[in-house]
């Protein structure tokens, strides 16, 4: 066993073992109201399907420091708004062989994309589960004659942020029954599967230990209502599936790729755990 590995085990034991109580810290008891006129629900009774698992659901915002929370209260202080503006500019620009812009078909982004984030991911007309990134690339390649954007490329981040902010303050509204049910079930299974050398599932940290500290991090419920987020650590935008990748890697497991079927299923399941909360993306995180 390498020293690095044993240190990790020690850290995991410290966070999840006997001393867990001592490492607990209260979350903030604050209201999120962006620019003073956009109230966001950050705390709500858990959805029916979470019975026996969680009583209440909380936005990750409540677990962050005073300074980080303050940045999300005002769009002038929120660094992600620059990315949103760039996405909005691209929205009106013609690209590709068909000579079309997003606006040509969808109209103004404020109207055309209102509420869209809250419903993602969802099953498309061909019966596949699609995230917002898939819908965007489908329009670019099949309707505009333009090149697909990489999942975590700059233009994709800008566009997903620009579309997401049109749903701020609207409740998470994903469909989990009917055609969506088999995807949701698979996502749930992944959420509770223990991965990696540390044998930790998403639930080990985000359901059983939220409120506790793991190393320097105050664990939240791992909700995605604030995504895409701006991370101060890497001074850039982080997509939902990229955040999943980071968390799986922390368990010392081989991770799934962004855009993989597994992460699509997981995205739907995690989104459904946030039912009751409002969309607050783009959030700010350390
Ligand atoms: C030629 C017309 C056209 C253009 C140009 C176009 N779209 Fe679309 N878009 C559509 C249609 C039609 C749908 C509905 C597809 C479906 O439901 O299967 C759609 C669906 C979407 C959706 C999913 C919306 C929802 O409610 O499910 C998103 C997001 C989207 N487009 C983004 C974009 C972006 C971003 C651009 C520019 C990069 C763009 N579209 C360009 C026609 C277009
Ligand atoms: C070893 C503990 C651990 C495991 C296991 C883990 N995470 Fe995380 N996760 C963290 C930490 C630490 C953070 C950053 C602080 C926070 O928000 O909890 C985080 C953050 C997140 C966030 C961002 C929340 C926000 O509001 O910014 C999401 C989403 C997330 N995790 C999802 C998952 C999913 C899905 C899984 C399972 C594939 C998972 N995590 C597994 C430790 C873990």
From TrEMBL:
Concerning NCBIfam families, the annotation shows: thiosulf_SoxA (TIGR04484)
Which compartments does it reside in? Periplasm
Residues given in the record as heme c 1 binding sites: 102, 105-106, 139
Q: Which residues bind heme c 2?
A: 202, 205-206, 247
Per UniProt, the keywords (alphabetical) are: Electron transport, Heme, Iron, Metal-binding, Periplasm, Signal, Transferase, Transport
Q: Return the similarity comment.
A: Belongs to the SoxA family.
Gene Ontology CC annotations of this record:
cytochrome complex; periplasmic space
Q: Which residues form the Cytochrome c domain?
A: 86-172, 186-277
Q: What is this protein called?
A: SoxAX cytochrome complex subunit A
Q: Which residues form the signal peptide?
A: 1-25
Q: Which cofactor does it need?
A: heme
The GO terms this record gives for MF are: electron transfer activity; heme binding; metal ion binding; oxidoreductase activity, acting on a sulfur group of donors, cytochrome as acceptor; transferase activity
Catalysis: reaction(s): L-cysteinyl-[SoxY protein] + thiosulfate + 2 Fe(III)-[cytochrome c] = S-sulfosulfanyl-L-cysteinyl-[SoxY protein] + 2 Fe(II)-[cytochrome c] + 2 H(+); S-sulfanyl-L-cysteinyl-[SoxY protein] + thiosulfate + 2 Fe(III)-[cytochrome c] = S-(2-sulfodisulfanyl)-L-cysteinyl-[SoxY protein] + 2 Fe(II)-[cytochrome c] + 2 H(+)
| InterPro entries per the UniProt record, alphabetical | Cyt_c-like_dom, Cyt_c-like_dom_sf, SoxA
Q: Per UniProt, where does substrate bind?
A: 243
UniProt-listed Enzyme Commission number(s): 2.8.5.2
Q: How does the record describe its quaternary structure?
A: Heterodimer of SoxA and SoxX.
Look up the coiled coil feature and give its residue ranges. none
